[in-house]
Amino acid sequence: MSDMTPVRRVQRVRHEIHRRELTVTDVQRRDGRFVVVTLQGDSLKSFVSSSFDDHVKLVLPHPDPGASGPLMRDYTPRAFDTQCGELVLEFALHGSGPFSTWAAQAAPGQTLTVAGPRGSMVIPTDYAWHWLVGDDTAWPAIARRLEELPADARVSLWLLMDDAPTLPARRPTSLDLHVLSTPAALLQALRGVSLPEGEGYVWCAGEAQAMTQLRELMLRDKGHPKEALKVAAYWKQGAEGFHARLDEEAPAQAD
C-alpha cells in the first residue's frame, strides 16, 4: 500500500460532441472472440480522444419500427488517425446483443453512425505502477492503455477471461500477466497480493457485480486511495445497454 499522501492527478476534459457517418473499410477477427472494425470518414480529421477509456456512442436503427429512437451503446475508441481520417473499434463478441450481432457480420462498405466522445478522464502515465483489471469488454481499453504507457512502466494485468488475448506488440517490458476464469478466482487472487510501494493507479472495468466487489476490495481491504482508482461497470447481468462508473466521486474538471 502506498505511504504517499493521496493527490488527485486525474483530469476531466470536455469535448465538443460530433455525430459522424462513417464507412467500414476493414474487418479483422482476433482470438475467436474479438472483431476489429476500421471506419473511415473525412469528419474524423477533427476526432479527439484524450484517454484510453474514452467512449463513443454507436448508433444503429431500431429493429422495431414503433420504437421511439435508435439503439445506442458506448464503445472504446481502440485507435484513431486524424490524418487518414480513420477510427478503429474493437468489439468483444459478448452475448447476443444488437451491437455484437452487428460486429459479427460487419463488412467493408457498410456504414455506422458514431457520436462523441463527450469527454475524457486523462490518467497520467507516470505513476510508479499501474494495475489494469478487466474482462473481455474491457480489453479494447486495456490494450490501448498498454500501447500508450511508457516502455519502462510497471504494469500488473489481471484479466477475467477463459484464456489470454493476443497482447499488443507495443507494450511495457515490465508486464505481470494474470488470467483468471471466474470473478471468485479473480477476487481470491487479488486478496492474496499486496499493492506495490509508491504511488500507483488501479483501473478496473467489467460486469457490475464483479466490479462492485473489486472496488470494495481496493478501497476497504487494501486501503488504496480513491483518488487513484477508477472502476467502471461496462455491463450487467440481465440488463441491456448498462454502463456506469462506480467511483464515489469524479475528479474536478480541468481548467
TrEMBL record:
Lineage: Bacteria, Pseudomonadati, Pseudomonadota, Betaproteobacteria, Burkholderiales
PROSITE patterns: FAD_FR
Organism: Pelomonas dachongensis
Listed name of the protein: Siderophore-interacting protein
Pfam families: FAD_binding_9 (PF08021), SIP (PF04954)
PANTHER family the record matches: FERRIC REDUCTASE, NADPH-DEPENDENT, NADPH-DEPENDENT FERRIC-CHELATE REDUCTASE
Family under the similarity heading: Belongs to the SIP oxidoreductase family.
Domain FAD-binding FR-type: 17-124
